[in-house]
Specification:
Distance between the termini: 39 Å
Number of strands: 7
Order of helices and strands: HHHHEEHEEHEHEHE
Radius of gyration: 18 Å
Helix content: 25-40%
Shape: globular
Structural class: alpha/beta
Number of helices: 8
Length: 277
């Protein structure tokens, strides 16, 4: 139990860490958290905790407690980075793919999966998570619906990360049979990350996914993607609307959003290699 709790905390912290590394990719090579730590306090906070940077755009009296629910220490984030650094004793790599549950590998490790609408940036985020493991190939495409299978990646002995096909526009024809069966039947699934585009907020397909997670009793966290591509006013509006909806109508959802910047497949993230489609 203690190991699972630690794994969940570190996986969440690493979402923030990759946000830092992605932001610094234009000015540093193979950026690591040790380099980020050299920033002045104000800029460091803005990179590591971007939600807190939105507070100055809010009217007085707006409750921002949910912005700080998850508040890892710098030591936590450093440990998260170490979790995603491969070694001879800690192998991080693609494991297998499946189009049906009876093709899925039978693994005993805890699993976390990433789901979201087509073209929300799911594969790009996973590619960034593995930026310190350049041997891991994660295919990224600008074409919606590129991911057609459930892709399994093993992170040492700690857990397995699963990249699910996107729902909505250009979803695989057998999406329901594939993804619903996985969410309902996978006993070692411990946490789901639901990605939402910060430019458009919740869409009809997202609400369907939320209802599905609620029906199956699956704990999940919301990841708000592409926040650097959205005007601050619209971003604040969408963040507050999503947070309000989550508090009132979403069961099993972690109370804080995890915001990440736009990670295009054709750009380099420190430590990664681009895989052509």
């Amino acid at each position: 139990m203690h190991q699972l709790q630690r794994m969940r905390r570190l996986v969440g912290a690493n979402c923030l860490l990759r946000r830092c590394s992605a932001t610094w990719r234009s000015s540093t090579k193979n950026a690591s958290f040790s380099e980020v730590l050299q920033l002045e306090d104000k800029k460091l906070t803005g990179l590591v905790f971007p939600l807190q940077g939105l507070e100055k755009y809010l009217t007085p009296g707006v409750n921002t407690a949910s912005f700080r629910t998850f508040n890892p220490s710098l030591d936590d984030i450093h440990r998260a980075e170490a979790l995603f650094k491969p070694s001879s004793k800690h192998v991080i790599d693609y494991f297998s793919s499946a189009v049906r549950m009876d093709h899925a590998p039978q693994l005993s490790q805890p699993e976390v999966c990433f789901v979201g609408r087509s073209n929300v940036g799911k594969s790009s985020l996973i590619k960034a998570l593995f930026s310190l493991a350049p041997e891991v190939e994660v295919r990224v495409s600008k074409t919606p619906g590129h991911t057609k299978k459930m892709n399994f990646f093993k992170v040492g002995k700690y857990f397995t990360l699963v990249d699910m096909p996107g729902y909505g526009y250009r979803a695989p024809q057998d999406f329901a049979d594939m993804v619903e069966a996985y969410l309902q039947e996978r006993r070692n699934l411990k946490r789901t990350f639901l990605l939402v585009d910060s430019l458009v907020g919740f869409q009809k397909a997202d609400h369907i996914a939320i209802e599905m997670l609620k029906e199956f009793g699956i704990p999940y966290a919301l990841v708000l993607t592409k926040i650097d591509k959205v005007p601050k006013g619209l971003l604040v509006k969408n963040v507050l609307e999503i947070q309000d909806f989550a508090e009132k109508r979403m069961q099993g959802c972690f109370p804080q959003l995890f915001p990440v910047s736009f990670l295009r497949g054709h750009q380099r993230v420190p430590g990664t290699k681009f895989t052509k489609q």
